[in-house]
Amino acid sequence: MKISSTEFIKSAFTQEHWPRDARPEIAFLGRSNVGKSSLINSLLGVRGLARTSRTPGRTQSLNYFLINNRFYFVDLPGYGFARVPKAIKASWGEMASDYLAKRRELVLSIQIVDSRHEPTTQDLQLNEWLQHHERPGLVVATKSDKLSNNELRKNMERIRKTLHAETVVAYSAVTGRGRDEIWQVINVALDAGF
Ligand code: GTP
Ligand code: MG
């Protein structure tokens, strides 16, 4: 897709702040510091649109970015920061789970995991929850530049098995690996609509 415009629209802290213009939305989900904001910036080929940080838990609201005046990327707060190994809701906030359960405009949820590690319990819970709610999803394993080809192949297989996912895209915000594959899935989701 050719990106002709990207614009930060707002940070939504409550449901009343969600946009009402019925444009489709692509959500980016994953634990704190996994690379959600970096993925957004690198998919769009921009620097610093979504704020990235070495400090986990930086993104605390739903951050809306309008792309080509046509659809939104939504950067969600990371989970797992509070280190409370209970239900996603308890540790991750009512706002994000509300959004995922209710939002009609949501056409694709991109779940990001770290390619170096086995998916966490919360990764697994989120994945099962999305499948249970029949939300179209895509699993992306990022930071693949930090692994050798051999390690990556092994880890990708482990992630696929643990999450029972048919497709897991290996990604790197540093090299751009996986970019075309993700855009293909986004295009299909946008065409399918809601
Ligand atoms: P929160 O908003 O705090 O939940 O974090 P986030 O998931 O948005 O992560 P963010 O994009 O801020 O990235 C966290 C750190 O990981 C930053 O230091 C990034 O530079 C680094 N990072 C993200 N993606 C990659 C990648 O593909 N490769 C490498 N080497 N580093 C990455
Ligand atoms: Mg972030």
Our estimate of the beta-strand percent is 15-25%
Q: CATH homologous superfamily, by name? A: P-loop containing nucleotide triphosphate hydrolases
Main sheet characteristics: 7 strands, mixed
Order of helices and strands: EEHEEHHEHEHEH
Overall strand count: 7
Helical proportion? 25-40%
Q: Which fold name fills CATH's third level, the topology?
A: Rossmann fold
Features:
194 residues; alpha/beta; Rossmann fold; 6 helices; 33% helix; binds guanosine-5'-triphosphate; binds magnesium ion
Layout of SSEs?
Elements: E1 6-12, E2 25-30, H1 36-44, E3 62-67, E4 71-75, H2 88-92, H3 94-102, E5 106-114, H4 121-132, E6 137-142, H5 149-163, E7 168-170, H6 179-192
Parallel strand pairs: 2-4, 2-5, 5-6, 6-7
Antiparallel strand pairs: 1-3, 3-4
The chain binds guanosine-5'-triphosphate and magnesium ion.
Guanosine-5'-triphosphate binds next to helix 1.
Describe this structure in words.
There is one protein chain. 33% of the residues lie in helices and 22% in strands. It has one domain: Rossmann fold, CATH 3.40.50.300. The chain has helices at residues 36-44, 88-92, 94-102, 121-132, 149-163, 179-192, and strands at residues 6-12, 25-30, 62-67, 71-75, 106-114, 137-142, 168-170. The mean pLDDT is 89. The longest helix has 15 residues, at 149-163. A hairpin with a 3-residue loop joins strand 3 and strand 4 (71-75). Guanosine-5'-triphosphate binds at residues 30, 32-38, 52-54, 56-59, 78, 142-143, 145-146, 172-174. Residues 30, 32-38, 52-54, 56-59, 78, 142-143, 145-146, 172-174 line the site of guanosine-5'-triphosphate.
